[in-house]
Each structure stands twice: as structure tokens, then as C-alpha cells.
Write a structure and sequence with these properties.
Layout lengths: L1 E6 L4 H14 L3 E4 L7 H13 L5 E6 L3 H7 L7 E3 L3 H9 L5 E5 L5 H13 L9 H13 L1
Parallel strand pairs: 1-2, 1-3, 3-5, 4-5
Helix pairs in contact: 1-5, 2-3, 4-5
Length: 146
Amino acid sequence: MKIAIGCDPNAQSAKEELIKFMNTKGYGSVTDFGSEDTIYAHVATKVAEAVAIGEYDRGILICGTGIGVCLAASKVKGAYPALLTDIYSAKRARLSNNANIACFGAFTIGSKLREELVDAFLTNEFVQGCSSQPKVDAFVEYDMNR
């Protein structure tokens, strides 16, 4: 799996912790898109574009709350970010919604919870033809036609 990760300067340490965690778990190759830009929308859209075109399988974005990077990434056609705060939602983001980018808050959740959320997000897969397929198809169709 190829994973793109980025954040704003406030989330640098959270990003570094997650990169170390993902490398230790062997999820695949992780590419750091940076954290220097104080305008989180810039890194969020870069990660989202890379995921949307298929250069990366999944993306991870972090800012203070995760809300800003989630909003910014959602503006990219083909990017389907999910703000994750609990394990059930992290699993369902993949299983039911086929989300391709996980968004987290550096100030709103702790490092161990972020690790568990990443684990849930990266180890679950959307199953084509499942009961959620028509719902996913509907938002993908809207997205592609906008």
C-alpha cells in the first residue's frame, strides 16, 4: 500500500508519530508531503490530488482538529476524506463509505487513539457490491459530474 501523509505545522509531532507507527506495522510505503505551510489547505489538496489520481492508495491528513484538512481535501474531485475520532467510524469509513483519506486532530485526540484509528482505517476494505454500494455510487457520481 502507498500512503500519502501531510499536516500543518501544529501537527508535525503527531505526523512523525504516525509515520513511525505505520513503518513499524509495515503497512507499506509512506510519503511525507510536508508540514511547513501554515495554510493547511495547501498540503491537504496536494495529498488529496495524489490519492484521487491513484498515485497513492490512501491519504492521512492532520491539523489541530482535523476539520480544516478534511474540508480542504473534500474539494478535490475523487478525494473522499473522513474525519475520524472513534474506532467504529474509522472502520465504517472504509467498509461503508470507501473513504480514501483519514483526517485527524492533533489537539483533539491522543497519540494512541490516532494509532488505533490509522490501524482501523488501513486494515479494512470496501467490498464492491455490498449493501453500501448504491450510496457510494451516488456520491461518486455527483462528485464526478460537478
